[in-house]
Amino acid sequence: MSKPLYKRVLLKLSGEALAGDKGFGLDTDTVNSIAIQIKELMELQVEVAVVVGGGNFWRGRTGEGMDRTTADYMGMLATVINGLALQDALENIGVLTRVQTAIEMRQIAEPYIRRRAVRHLEKNRIVIFAAGTGNPYFSTDTTAALRAAEIEAEVILLAKKVDAVYDKDPNEFDDAKKFDELSYIDVLKLGLKVMDSTATSLCMDNKIPIKVFGLDNPENIKKIIFGEQIGTYIHN
Ligand code: UDP
Known about the structure:
This is Uridylate kinase. With 236 residues, this protein is α/β, with parallel strands linked by helices.
């Protein structure tokens, strides 16, 4: 059997990815399926850190008329709900997991400590990063870029509802063009809605490649790990 291409990866799961077809909240079957896919990576000795989003419950921009900082803290709390749900699903199938939060809530999870996170990964535990960066005005995509740089992940696996990056919404336009490969600069210049510009710049400056793919096929993560070209590859 061929060997995995990566030793340490950062998987970004948007809140939407955890909501399945429900579009809101958590879909148990979807969360369980993702947990199984993560377990498969762990069994291949790939170290997996996960950043969870929160958009299935709340996004800062949902709180129109609210104080932005308050609305963003609500979003960060939403990511903690998702982190705990994923931890539970992983532990149910026997995977050792630690949740680390960027905002201290010690009764619930460990605080984020980089060295400790790396140590967990080395022990083949799955580390789930929740509460974003701990700062308002940021996104969990930026969190993914930041944590990937900090823990020296080789790649960000960006799980999306759509199977790749397109020049326009493929659900709306039949002639939407799919990109197999893109540079960070293209993403920024073309204003492609893959990640926000802060996250894209951080990846560009730190040379962290991104694989964008859909969770529609439960084999996709494994395919990427073994180097199969699916979705969109964003790099320098
Ligand atoms: N958020 C934040 N700072 C961070 C990460 C997230 O303020 O470092 C807030 C922000 O309001 C965001 C919400 O948490 O809208 C949920 O995160 P995001 O929208 O990135 O989730 P996703 O779209 O991935 O589900």
